[in-house]
Every structure is written in structure tokens, then in C-alpha cells.
TrEMBL record:
Cellular-component GO terms for this entry: membrane
Compartment(s) of residence: Membrane
Protein known as: Exopolysaccharide biosynthesis polyprenyl glycosylphosphotransferase
Keywords tagged on the record: Membrane, Transferase, Transmembrane, Transmembrane helix
NCBIfam families: EPS_sugtrans (TIGR03025), EpsB_2 (TIGR03013)
Domain Bacterial sugar transferase: 277-460
Origin: domain of life: Bacteria
Membrane keyword on record: yes
GO molecular function: phosphotransferase activity, for other substituted phosphate groups
Native organism: Sulfuricaulis limicola
Transmembrane segments: 12-38, 50-71, 83-105, 117-137, 282-305
Family: Belongs to the bacterial sugar transferase family.
Membrane topology listed for this record: Multi-pass membrane protein
Length: 466
């Protein structure tokens, strides 16, 4: 993992994206040179500067590939066939967008023959890049070797993080060193019975990283001198909370100490960050209102034709610093969805959802009116999902650190929304809170852009709706 603007990015994905950027950029130069300089080298001079064309092409293609879910942690979740479909679809979309760019800015056009060659080179080059990286990072030598210090209940979840959803190893958990005689919550075969300095044991097993899973920090419970020795020897030493944060994109509530929240980087506010986020929200919401007006008018008509009654629904939600505001959404449920007056969680295949409502939820169109809330300042484009006061009061009593999610503005989309499906239980709320805490700690414009791109994938492929 590497950290870009506070956000953890898997090193394989980062290296692959950088290589793809180089391939896309070079494809424009190679295609233009081959097409125009093959017979007469002077022809390339009449074309004009290639650099702006290459830069625009690279940015467009990388943005579309990201929006199609090709630059995220679970890129392999749908298997090789699903990955191939997304890859081909992203290039088809890229072709359409580039043709629109050439139509609006005709002086950037290379000509059909040259652009066709550029596109073929880019497609073949990025496909080969992905094939090489997929094979390369399956090698065991490319995975970090991790040593776990401590074997108590706080460390047990690390075993479940070792493999991804496809069963492939993300890192090699070599074993664990218990520091005392407390109960072991790990597989007994993971226990290392080696004696001696931690550095010697780490060198014996060629350890790259030591994860400290011990809660005691004083009174001799933590071998700080030995860990410092390991760090000075080039072995990375991290605490359990930071390890979970990096590997899952969550901040685990169970293993969280208040002191970690206080002294770790993040969880901070700055006027510059707040102003830049607000400027982005105002500009983007104004533009989106104009662009989506036809879609909203059609949606309003369909809702009215199906069930009549109100097209929108307004509901109280809890915003930044606990302030209550009224959120605006397209109505996707029956008018008597809560006939007894008691708030209810949304359920899977909820019978209260109308036919039109099911479609607009699938495509997230029901969220579009919230752009007015963004423009007004009640919400941001990106942030934790705003919840109803009834649920906030209930969950605050049941879940530690729940109020911390209200230290930033709620959003139309967010890190929890794209990483976890709709939830209807307290356990689901815990999982989403852990994603929200990651966002509260690490939110930057860079992370906001990543979330917006991945939200586009949710819309394109209809994920996350009920």
C-alpha cells in the first residue's frame, strides 16, 4: 500500500495505473508518428503539437476506466469475464467521448486513420499491461510478509484479511508472537515458538512488517525498545488500528482507542479544506442541475403517472454537528410506506417500493433532488449518508463513536455508500460507520474524486440499490 493525499491505494493498482497512463500517452505519439511520418517526415509538422492531444486522451481514458471500476481494490470481484466486459466497455465509451471532444474542438482531430491507429495501440497496450500485472502480482514474492505481535481477541480478525473474496492472498501472515500467557484466539498453527530478540526472529522469517496487536502500552507490556530496533533495521512497524484502516478502508470500532483518534494524523479540519470543498460543491451542483434537468422532469412525470400524489418527499435528517435539515428526494415508495408513523429501515426487495421507484433507486436517480440540498449548503456531494433523527438517537446509544460521523457534512454519495450495500440492521450500521470514520479521518478532494468516479460505476452497473 502507498498513501496518496491521506488515502491508502494498493501498490499494484497504483503501478498499473501509472503504467497505463504512460501507455496511453505514448500511443498518441506513436500513432501520430507512424501515420504521418512513414513516407514524409515533414507531414508530422503540419499536424501541430501532439502533447495536448496525448494529455487529453490519457486523462479521458483513465477517468472512464476508473468510472467503470477498473482502478479499485475489488477490481477482480466479478471474475476475468466481468473484468474483460468492463475493459472493452470502457474503451467503447472512451471512443464516444473522444469523438465528442474532436467534434467540439476540431483542431485536436488527428484524422480517422491516425486516431484509429492510436486507439488500437492504446487498447492493445493497456490490455497487455493488465495481463502482465495480474500475472506479476500473483507471485508470492510480491506479497508482504507480516508478523503479528500478540494473539488475543483484537488480532483474530487479521486472519480473515489475509485473502480477498476470490481467495487470493493479499499478504502472507507468517505467524504471531504471543507476548504473555493470555488466551490465543488465532489458529494454533500460526503461533511461533521462537525465542530471542524480535529483530532476530523477523530476520529469520524475512518479515517485511510487524503488526502490534497488544493493547498495553505501559508497564512493560510492549517491547518498545525491540520494536524501535526493528524499525531502524528497515522493518515497518504498525499498530492494529492502522493496519485495519489500510487493508480494509475502514476504521475498526472494536480495536479503536480514543488516544489513537487524537494522536493519529487526520480527523482534522482546516479553513482551506472547507472552502475548497464548498466551492466545488457549488460549482458542481449548479452544473449538475442544468445537465440533469431533463432526466428529473421525465422522472417526475413517470412517478406522477404511476401513482399520482407527491413527486418529491421531504424528510428530516441529521447533518453536520447534529443540525437537523429536510432532505429532498424523488418519492420511490408508496405514499403510505409508514402508515403507522414508525420509522422503518429499508429492506431487501422492499415491498413498499414502486415499479418506477425500483428503477430510479437502481440508477440512483432518486438522489438527484438532493443536489438542491448541496447547493443550499445542507449537504455536500461526498460525505456520510444523512440518517433520520430517530435512527441516529438509537444508534448513538448502541454504537461507540457514532456521533463522530456528524463532524462533516453528509453527502449524496460517500465512501460507505460505494463500499457497502444498503443496511437494515445495527450490524450493518457498524460496518458503514467504520467506512464513514475512514472518510472523516482522511477526506480530501482527491478522495472525493475517487468516490465520485466509483459512484459512476454504481450507476453504470446498477449496484447497491434496493
Amino acid at each position: 500500500m502507498i498513501r496518496l493525499f491521506k488515502h491508502y491505494v494498493p501498490l499494484p493498482l497504483f503501478l498499473m495505473a501509472v503504467t497505463e497512463a504512460v501507455v496511453l500517452f505514448a500511443s498518441m505519439y506513436i500513432g501520430a508518428v507512424v501515420r504521418f511520418s512513414w513516407e514524409d517526415p515533414s507531414d508530422i509538422e503540419s499536424l501541430g503539437p501532439i502533447f495536448p492531444r496525448a494529455l487529453i486522451f490519457t486523462l479521458v481514458m483513465l477517468s472512464i476506466m476508473t468510472a467503470f471500476g477498473l482502478h479499485q481494490r475489488d477490481v477482480k470481484q466479478e471474475g476475468e469475464w466481468g473484468h474483460l466486459v468492463r475493459f472493452v466497455a470502457s474503451f467503447v465509451a472512451g471512443l464516444v467521448v473522444m469523438l465528442l471532444v474532436f467534434y467540439v474542438f476540431p483542431h485536436l482531430h488527428l484524422g480517422r486513420g491516425a486516431f484509429g491507429l492510436v486507439f488500437l495501440l492504446a487498447f492493445a497496450g493497456t490490455a497487455l499491461t493488465r495481463l502482465v500485472f495480474v500475472r506479476l502480482f500473483k507471485l508470492d514474492a510480491m506479497r508482504r510478509r507480516v508478523l503479528l505481535l500478540g494473539a488475543g481477541s483484537r488480532t483474530a480478525k487479521i486472519e480473515g484479511l489475509e485473502r480477498d473474496e476470490q481467495g487470493e492472498r493479499k499478504f502472507n501472515l507468517v505467524g504471531c508472537l504471543p507476548l504473555n500467557n493470555s488466551d490465543c484466539c488465532l489458529d494454533r498453527t500460526r503461533i511461533l515458538h521462537d525465542k530471542g530478540p524480535i529483530l532476530s526472529i523477523a530476520r529469520k522469517y524475512k518479515i517485511d512488517e510487524i503488526v502490534v496487536g497488544v493493547r498495553e502500552r505501559r508497564g512493560g507490556g510492549l517491547p518498545a525498545d525491540q520494536l524501535l530496533e526493528c524499525k531502524l533495521a528497515g522493518i515497518e512497524v504498525v499498530d492494529l488500528s492502522s493496519f485495519f484502516e489500510r487493508e480494509t478502508g475502514q476504521i475498526q470500532v472494536e480495536s479503536l482507542n480514543p488516544s489513537w483518534m487524537i494522536f493519529s494524523d487526520g480527523f482534522g479540519r482546516s479553513p482551506l479544506k472547507d472552502v475548497s470543498k464548498r466551492m466545488f460543491d457549488v460549482a458542481a451542483s449548479g452544473a449538475l442541475l442544468l445537465l440533469t434537468l431533463p432526466v428529473m422532469l421525465i422522472t417526475a412525470l413517470l412517478i406522477w403517472l404511476e401513482s399520482g400524489g407527491p413527486i418529491f418527499y421531504r424528510q428530516e435528517r441529521v447533518g453536520e454537528n447534529g443540525r437537523v435539515f429536510r432532505v429532498l428526494k424523488f418519492r420511490s415508495m408508496r405514499q403510505d410506506a409508514e402508515r403507522d408513523g414508525v420509522p422503518q429501515w429499508a429492506k431487501k426487495q422492499d415491498s413498499r417500493v414502486t415499479r418506477v421507484g425500483r428503477v430510479i433507486r437502481l440508477l440512483r436517480i432518486d438522489e438527484l433532488p438532493q443536489v438542491f440540498n448541496v447547493f443550499k449548503g445542507d449537504m455536500s456531494f461526498v460525505g456520510p449518508r444523512p440518517e433520520r433523527p430517530f435512527f441516529v438517537e438509537d444508534l448513538t446509544k448502541k454504537i461507540s463513536y457514532y456521533p463522530s460521523r456528524h463532524t462533516v457534512k453528509p453527502g449524496i454519495t460517500g465512501w460507505a455508500q460505494i463500499r457497502y450495500p444498503y443496511g437494515a440492521t445495527v450490524e450493518d450500521a457498524v460496518q458503514k460507520l467504520q467506512y464513514d470514520l475512514y472518510y472523516v479521518k482522511n477526506h480530501t478532494l482527491f478522495l472525493d474524486l475517487i468516490i465520485l468516479f466509483q459512484t459512476a460505476q454504481v450507476i453504470l452497473f446498477g449496484k447497491g440499490a434496493r
